Amino acid sequence: MSTVVASTPAHIIRDLLGLQKVAAAFRFFDESAGYITDEQIRICSIPASPFGEQQRAQYLHDKFAELGLGEPSIDEEGNCLALFEGQALSPLLVVSAHLDTVFSNTTDFTITCRHDRLFGPGISDDGCGLVALLATAVALKRTGLQTRGSILFVGTVGEEGEGNLRGVRHLLTKGRWTNQIDAFISFDGPGADRITNQALGSRRYRVRLQGAGGHSWGDFGSPNAIHALGRAISRLVNYPAPKEPRTTFNVGHIEGGESVNSIPSDVRMEVDLRSADESELRRLDAYFRRAVIDAVEEENGGARPGDPPLQIQLDLIGSRPTGETPSDSYLVEFAQAATRAVGYEPRLEQASTDSNLPISLGIPAITLGAGGQAGLSHTLAEWYDPTGRDKGLKRALLVMLGFVGVTNE
Fold it and tell me: Which CATH superfamily groups domain 9-200+322-404?
């Protein structure tokens, strides 16, 4: 038995690379590419629409149970969890990927393969992350690697859209493991160089306007809810969004109305606001809310005598905090050293992922690409190319082992 002892993340990674069981795990990633791809196809073929992740969670639960991971379960929020037990519970590292996609339950989740690329909704975001979760767990169990601390594997719900990070929020604030987690890693999307250590903040709103409606000719002049939305959108588009800190807005969904010759009585839109800076996000948030109110007041101001005014319902459907795991933190330094060890130059970046929540709670957290290449995420033409996936998996394993420690060879 030997113990990996070294003073810096770079030295620890170097020593891990010299262990026979780490080499065996690397060979598993190299030799099992077909198995890993087949698992990714199976996972992504299971529908996982927003708030409809149950079947996919059960599949992951059953795979964890087959592996013999400790205490596989599905918690009250729908997360799938399993524990790889080390000599001790602490340090406890969460390794996660999100189960949900952005696509509705009417979507065809069939996965196809053309020219070595996989095509299908969610195949990259976050199919490659989910299969990385499974592949690293299999590598740990098959090679007999033993660790000082423990690793909690988690498939989270509610990372996309209106999910508002409900899965990771439950895990860290209400679940069984609350206050026991020492660090957090999320696998999300492709690549083997990027390390997301900065949390991109966002606010998401659903705006609903309701009025009397009427005939486009006979009731012309009655407040028109779509016209009011148009006024609000025009105001938002004219917001002077700074390039630094980068700030964005998007009207992603509009619905409502009855016919081309009817004044609509009920319309809705959903809006996404983001900024790299919390104070700028608050400014954009306040501007948007004011823009909606002003637009409705302007539309109501032209109403005919006796017409009922439009009513506003403005609901915050998502709020993600900003924050950062510092670049000189132990976890980020491990990720950078592991990235270099597999032949890439690390690239620190900012994004909106499950890691936003632990970062906001002061828990060291990063999001890693799971290897391979991808494109057209969040569209029905989404694709994933597993070429180079092994590099992402090897990097992930090195970071995991480096953080929790290895007890034997």
Answer: Zn peptidases (3.40.630.10)
Q: Please state at what angle helix 389-404 crosses helix 127-143, rounded to 10 degrees.
A: 60
Sequence length of the chain is 409
Domain boundaries, given as residue ranges, for the chain: 9-200+322-404, 204-320
Do 9-200+322-404 and 204-320 share a fold? Answer: no
Cα(123)–Cα(382) distance, integer angstroms: 7
pLDDT tens digits for range 343-365: 999 999 999 999 999 999 999 99
Residues 266-286: tens digit of each pLDDT: 999 999 999 999 999 999 999
Contact (Cβ atoms closer than 8 angstroms) between residue 43 and residue 100: no
- In this prediction, residue 409 has a pLDDT band, given cuts at 50, 70 and 90, of low
Which tokens is 325 given? 């795991």
Residue type, 270: E
The verdict on pTM exceeding 0.85 is: yes
The matching CATH number, chosen from 3.40.50.2300, 3.30.70.360, 1.10.150.910, 1.10.10.10, for 204-320 is 3.30.70.360
